[in-house]
Design goal:
alpha+beta; Butyryl-CoA Dehydrogenase, subunit A, domain 3; 3 domains; 13 helices; 10 strands; globular; binds flavin-adenine dinucleotide
Amino acid sequence: MADQYLMTADQKDLQAMVRDFAEKEIIPYNAEWDREAAIPAEAIQKGYDMGLHVMIVPEKYGGMGLDETTYCILREMLGWGDASYALTIGGNTLGFTPVEIAGTEEQKKMFADIIVPGALSSFCLTEAQGGSDAATSLTTATKVGDEYIINGSKTFVTNGGLSSAYVVFAMTDKEKGVKGLSAFIVERSRPGVSVGKKEDKMGIRASNTTDVIFQDVKIPASNLLGSEGQGFKIAMQTLDRARPSGSSAGVGLCQRAIDEAVKYAKERVVFGKPIAKHQAVAFMLADMEIQTEAARQLVMNSARLMDNGIFDTKLAAVAKCFVGDIAVQVTCNAVQVLGGYGYSKEYPVEKLMRDAKIYQIFEGTNQIQRMVISSNMLR
Ligand SMILES: Cc1cc2nc3c(=O)[nH]c(=O)nc-3n(C[C@H](O)[C@H](O)[C@H](O)COP(=O)(O)OP(=O)(O)OC[C@H]3O[C@@H](n4cnc5c(N)ncnc54)[C@H](O)[C@@H]3O)c2cc1C
């Protein structure tokens, strides 16, 4: 588990609390939630009761106000419990961060007043015609008097069907490409907001991923974040800041794969001894440990830098990319260690392997991360 040597007593207490929560309230339901492709409202409510949905919202707005390092330690623990649960209850990271970056004091308070009592919010950037290229956004926001009217459809929205508020990226000036993109707070209760198709996914099946449709949705001009044309910058800064905590859930998933594989390897006897005593299996476990520990350190490094006011886009992308790539390998190796049983739904590792793949795709694919990293190197 995360950085035992450097954790403060408070961090250790919080980590133990979330581990206990994961053991009792998440892990026993992993298979059921995966099968049902949903997390019951009561299970999400238990997370609200512990404040897990507002860990990064500052205390002055009613959140837990955790620093990024502590947040990452706890997100890792939640990811160890279940990647879908970590993503669902952590959804306000992508919802609140754009407001924190660009919002006025009133906007921050207004948004926090929606989510803090027990609600989720979503980040609505991706559209069907190409998620990696925000310049192709077809969603528009047209100013009429002191209102904006939003029209368009967003896809692959995490918590789309559960959220009470959305941060929506829409074109206020199409001619300007990404420089014409603006960011808006849109409450779910606004007439014209509806939830569309729910994705039937290979992994993180219990995480709610839907289309969200905006049809002639009127919002006050005061719901614009920052000024017109700043949307792309706000979106990218949000993703930069969300990368360490999002990736820490992936590290937790890898740790779970290791724990399951080690347990099995010590118990399963083949050719007269536990398979852990066969060096080929032991070395597979060692490789899983090396990759996961390296990933954890990259994530924690980015988190600590953030806590010191340093937002390093390249290092956040390096961490995100590495976690995504090794999560696929580590969980695949966990399946291998369990042999045929690894491939069976009787054991949890096949789900971990399906869940792991998402870390190479969302919040900017690993190809896009490599573009970010190389352009920083070649600048
Ligand atoms: C479960 C899930 C949850 C998600 N949650 C959210 C959310 O909450 N909010 C949100 O806004 N979005 C969300 N997304 C969307 C996600 O961020 C996009 O899927 C992702 O950015 C890629 O966009 P795309 O799927 O349209 O792929 P495309 O952009 O069509 O890319 C397809 C492939 O081409 C590659 N590619 C594209 N351009 C280049 C290039 N220039 N060079 C090299 N390779 C390239 C990509 O890496 C990818 O491999 C989610 C997606 C999933 C699956």
